[in-house]
């Protein structure tokens, strides 16, 4: 079937999401070293990421419900303004308490990506949505290439009064998020029809907790949700532990750390665009997923085993290439094994499991890092290989080829 032309509004919301992803990813490479400026321990530094993820887990369903009630545009503006304010607060924070408050504020108002997804659902037909969400995901991922690179350049800027070199990245992030606000105000029309202020009450069902607990018991799909949790947790253990390892064991600086994160984005984007579909056409999805997780686990084990910058560059390149595969493949398996009318709910629940892993991983990693900078990489390597085995064990239970009918 020929792809349908997407409406002009789609490219506006895609641009907003791209700008927002740049704003978000600018601060990823500097959050750990910035925390160390406040004399935080490694574990306390990990809690900055956990605080953001937990706050986002609470806040995102509320913003989604509000966007249904009063419209997408005002909620998207409020959410983006929350990011602007949170990053400005982080840039001028003089105490760790203010820095934690900034991360919590950013998490609580961080429902802009889910609202952007709702906009896409509003403006596209069911036939257009696979194409639209695929393009949207690719554009959003491009932000993971641009953001860390901008973080490097932001550290070269002249500092403002009361703001350190690392703090300047938060300033740049706030400016870019504000650009997304302006694009939303002046170019994005309201896409939710017939909205008007109404009474708004929250119930337990508006939050993700009940659905997550219930979904774990779903026949078959519960195993895929568990796979998302395991894959996400092992990856985020690495994401935090990698930073002190890179800075301390490999003796590199924060600018090189930003370059490393940017390299992950670039290589991951290349692999996803040029390799994933070719592999999917030749092999079963679960086989590709299990192999990607296995290779990822092996690279986690090799990095601390050969702690030289040359060995790291080779191992890290392999990691970055396979790292783009697990989540898109898990979502493909979920899609192939879900009914048409429950696709949105299933993928939404899976996203909630990923949010939980984003909270667990850094917390666990922070505890492990306090025992040594190599230990968490070895441990998450072993756990990732176990996760690969679990993925491979599901091979016989699911439709695993994209051409199979539901």
Notes on the protein architecture:
This protein has 406 residues and is mainly alpha-helical. It has 2 domains: 8-191, Growth Hormone, Chain: A, CATH 1.20.1250.20; 208-406, Up-down Bundle (Growth Hormone, Chain: A). It has 17 helices and no strands. The protein has helices at 8-26, 31-36, 42-70, 72-92, 96-108, 112-123, 129-154, 167-187, 209-215, 221-249, 254-274, 276-282, 285-305, 309-322, 326-336, 343-369, 375-393. α1 (8-26) runs antiparallel to α8 (167-187). The two termini are 17 Å apart.
Indicate the topology.
Elements: H1 8-26, H2 31-36, H3 42-70, H4 72-92, H5 96-108, H6 112-123, H7 129-154, H8 167-187, H9 209-215, H10 221-249, H11 254-274, H12 276-282, H13 285-305, H14 309-322, H15 326-336, H16 343-369, H17 375-393
Helix pairs in contact: 1-6, 1-7, 1-8, 3-4, 3-5, 3-6, 3-16, 4-5, 4-6, 4-8, 7-11, 10-15, 10-16, 10-17, 11-14, 13-14, 13-15, 13-17
Q: Give the mean pLDDT.
A: 85
The residue fraction in helices comes out at over 70%
| Shape field | globular
Radius of gyration: 21 Å
CATH topology of the largest domain: Growth Hormone, Chain: A
Strand content: under 5%
Counted by DSSP, the helix tally is 17
Spans of at least 5 consecutive residues whose pLDDT stays below 50 are 402-406
How many E strands?
0
Overall tally of domains? 2
Question: What key phrases describe this protein's structure?
Answer:
single chain; 406 residues; disordered C terminus; globular; 2 domains; Growth Hormone, Chain: A; mainly alpha; 17 helices
């Amino acid at each position: 079937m020929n792809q349908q032309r997407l409406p002009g509004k789609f490219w506006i919301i895609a641009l907003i999401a791209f700008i927002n992803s740049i704003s978000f990813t600018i601060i990823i490479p500097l959050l750990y070293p910035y925390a160390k400026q406040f004399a935080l321990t490694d574990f306390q530094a990990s809690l900055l990421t956990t605080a953001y993820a937990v706050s986002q887990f609470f806040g995102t369903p509320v913003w989604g419900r509000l966007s249904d009630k009063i419209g997408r545009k005002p909620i998207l503006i409020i959410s983006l303004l929350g990011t602007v304010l949170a990053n400005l607060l982080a840039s001028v924070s003089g105490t760790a308490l203010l820095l934690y408050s900034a991360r919590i504020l950013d998490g609580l108002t961080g429902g802009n990506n889910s609202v952007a997804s709702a906009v896409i659902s509003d403006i596209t037909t069911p036939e257009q949505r696979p194409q639209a969400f695929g393009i949207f995901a690719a554009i959003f991922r491009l932000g993971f290439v641009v953001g860390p690179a901008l973080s490097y350049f932001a550290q070269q800027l002249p500092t403002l009064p009361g703001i350190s070199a690392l703090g300047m990245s938060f300033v740049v992030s706030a400016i870019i998020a504000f650009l997304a606000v302006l694009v939303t105000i002046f170019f994005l029309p309201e896409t939710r029809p017939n909205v008007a202020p109404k009474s708004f009450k929250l119930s337990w069902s508006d939050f993700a907790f009940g659905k997550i607990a219930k979904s774990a018991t779903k026949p078959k799909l519960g195993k895929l949700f568990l796979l998302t949790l395991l894959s996400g947790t092992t990856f985020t253990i690495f994401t935090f532990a990698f930073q002190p390892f890179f800075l301390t064991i490999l003796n590199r600086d924060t600018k090189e750390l930003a370059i490393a994160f940017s390299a992950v984005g670039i290589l991951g984007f290349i692999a996803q665009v040029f390799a994933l579909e070719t592999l999917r056409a030749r092999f079963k999805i679960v086989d590709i997923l299990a192999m990607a997780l296995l290779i990822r686990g092996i690279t986690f084990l090799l990095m601390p085993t050969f702690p030289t910058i040359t060995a790291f560059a080779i191992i890290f390149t392999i990691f970055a290439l396979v790292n783009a595969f697990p989540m898109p493949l898990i979502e493909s398996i979920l899609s192939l094994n879900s009914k048409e009318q429950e696709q949105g709910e299933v993928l939404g629940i899976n996203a909630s499991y990923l949010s939980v892993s984003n909270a667990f991983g850094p917390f666990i990693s922070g505890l492990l890092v306090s025992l040594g900078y190599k230990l968490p990489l070895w441990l998450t390597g072993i756990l990732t290989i176990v996760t690969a085995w679990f993925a491979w064990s599901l091979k016989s239970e699911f439709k695993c080829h994209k051409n199979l009918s539901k």
